[in-house]
Putative enzyme related to lactoylglutathione lyase (Streptomyces echinatus), 116 residues
Amino acid sequence: MTAGLQTIIYPVKDLDRAKAVFGALLGVEPYADQPYYVGYKAAGQDVGLDPNGHAKGMTGPVPYWHVTDLRQRLAALVEAGAELLQDAQDVGGGRLIASVKDADGNLVGLLQDASA
């Protein structure tokens, strides 16, 4: 049961400005460009911009660990003392996400692809 860090989501207030900055940083065009989410893939890393992130309680970038059994891993984190922020949610195409806060207040995201 391994987890890999492959996705980082940034909460942004001005999506157009953020797209300009991250486009310049990553040197690629977004693979997803919607009013609710912009996603880039560069060097094996998935970088997302979430204009609703601040409203969801994101105070900074959130690393999303890719896991094969999100619900099991989420339960283990909560049992270990993490605080549940967002329970498992299907964000489309069978992709599940969830997030917790560790004992120091750091945000930790979990992501399970439909193929997992």
Summary: Residues 15-26 form the longest helix (12 residues). Strands lie at 4-11, 32-34, 37-42, 45-50, 62-66, 83-90, 96-101, 107-112.
